[in-house]
Amino acid sequence: MTRIESVTLRSPDPAAVAAFAAAIAPGLPVRAEDGAAPPRGFRGFTLSLVVPEPSAVDALVAAALEAGGTPVRPPRRSLWGYGGSVAGPDGSIWTVASARKWSSKKNHGPDGNRIEQFVLQLGSDDVAASREFYLERGLQVEKSFGRKYVQFDNGSGPITLAVLNRRLLARNAGVSPDGDGRRGIVINGAAGSFTDPDGFTWAAA
């Protein structure tokens, strides 16, 4: 099964990006490499951490801000749970969310930053076309909601891939959809080297 092994963020200051990711959660499959001028505006993707408790959301967001992140959307309650977002040193948006439903936001355990799932969400102008593109490259659909959202089975891989409407992704993250940041990330996996319909680059792991 095709799987994502890691992602590489491109930045003029890769050391700051690497230190930021390590401060959030040591061992995350996130690399950093030197890039040219930083992309402008929304990068078109988010790095999303799913955790079991609202207290873990608060802890990880606090760690991200302490490590030099910029607040985007403070943690808050919504119909789907509890979460917030932070921009990293390179401008990439990181979101942290509790998997608990709105009626179960109360903390049921000690504070912690245990990550249940690490999801790379890509913004697409045509989710259906992106879905077919990735199916042809060996990925298997785990969840799909029409032309709005598709999540692929990551098998035993450390990163889950999801594709959703770009404007919806930006709205969920709390930013404007305008930007040219697709060149700010490289996805490393077994699918080979290619560029997807929305301009995201993959490299053979």
TrEMBL record:
It comes from the Bacteria. InterPro entries: Glyas_Bleomycin-R_OHBP_Dase. PANTHER family: BLR2520 PROTEIN. This is Glyoxalase-like domain protein. It comes from Mycolicibacterium hassiacum (strain DSM 44199 / CIP 105218 / JCM 12690 / 3849).
